[in-house]
Design a protein that fits this description.
InterPro entries: HTH_67 (IPR054058)
Shape: globular
Radius of gyration: 19 Å
Helix content: 55-70%
Organism: Streptomyces changanensis
Structural class: mainly alpha
Strand content: under 5%
Distance between the termini: 43 Å
Order of helices and strands: HHHHHHHHHHHHHHHH
Protein name: SalK
């Protein structure tokens, strides 16, 4: 088994995951989903990310996405499948990925570096496992696109969902419910902002405040809403637990391959962010 430097798994995953996520924030995604009849942003996201699992109902999406209010999910599922089939949605998502990556990265989308990143990321996915990972397992059944920038985006999707499924196991082990997980992550200073959560996840301010109080009651948040020493330790253990469950793809790739994929993905991410890939109020405490 390859021994990787400390935190190499999450350092590599971070830019790969963020590059994957650019599609869901893009105008191309909204346009392509609207083109198959799914114009509402919530419906588009739920359908776009869940379509690989088939025409699933709200319970499956709430369970696998974890931090959305079930009432919000049930507002759009399963009704969205009466408008567009999973196959239609997956095709629209891939068209959106093509247009988004080309727009954000320009010439780099067709570069030798992109082809190399695709090879490395796909090699890492060879060691991903399906058991206990429903979102990953569903996406693993999809064909790999031929174009290197789409092959890379596909591999990034697999790596993202593989780690994401593992992360849910870590959150459950830490006894963090959906909103407690978000609140405690935001308190680290690296999570999505409360404003963004309330606007997109179906929760109310009262729900957020109640989660804060529960975490304070466990000694994980201080009076100002920051992490206590115990809270910081718990969040680090969640990430370390996730790293352990997600180590196989990166160990399979090897230390040199992981370092190179991290380097390439960071370069692409820097370019994508400079091109306006992410909403300005996505992260932070506000």
């Amino acid at each position: 088994m390859t021994t990787l430097p400390p935190r190499a798994v999450r350092r590599c995953h971070h830019p790969v995951n963020l590059l994957h996520s650019t599609v869901y924030f893009s105008p191309e995604f909204a346009t392509e989903l609207a083109g198959v009849g799914v114009a509402d942003p919530h419906a588009a996201y739920f359908a776009g990310r869940a379509a690989a699992m088939g025409a699933v109902g709200p319970g499956v999406v709430t369970g696998t996405f974890y931090n959305f209010n079930h009432a919000l999910v049930a507002r759009y599922l399963p009704a969205v499948w009466d408008t567009a089939s999973p196959a239609d949605v997956l095709a629209a998502r891939l068209r959106a990925a093509d247009a988004t990556v080309r727009r954000l990265l320009g010439d780099a989308a067709a570069s030798d570096g992109m082809a190399e990143a695709a090879r490395l990321a796909l090699r890492a996915t060879e060691a991903c496992t399906r058991h206990g990972r429903p979102l990953y397992a569903a996406h693993a059944d999809l064909p790999v696109p031929e174009a290197p920038h789409l092959a890379f985006w596909h591999a990034a999707t697999l790596l993202r969902e593989h780690r994401g499924d593992a992360h849910l196991a870590a959150l459950l082990s830490a006894d963090l419910d959906p909103l407690e997980a978000v609140v405690s992550h935001t308190a680290t200073g690296t999570g999505i902002s409360p404003r963004w959560v309330l606007a997109t996840r179906g929760w109310e301010q009262a729900d957020w405040d109640a989660a804060v109080e529960r975490l304070r009651g466990r000694g994980l948040l201080d009076a100002a809403g920051g992490l206590t020493e115990a809270g910081a330790a718990l969040r680090e253990e969640v990430e370390a637990h996730t790293d352990r469950l997600d180590a196989a793809p990166y160990e399979h790739l090897g230390a040199e391959g992981v370092a190179r994929l991290t380097e390439l993905a960071r370069g692409f991410l820097t370019a994508a962010a400079a091109a306006g890939a992410f909403p300005s109020r996505l992260t932070g405490q506000g």
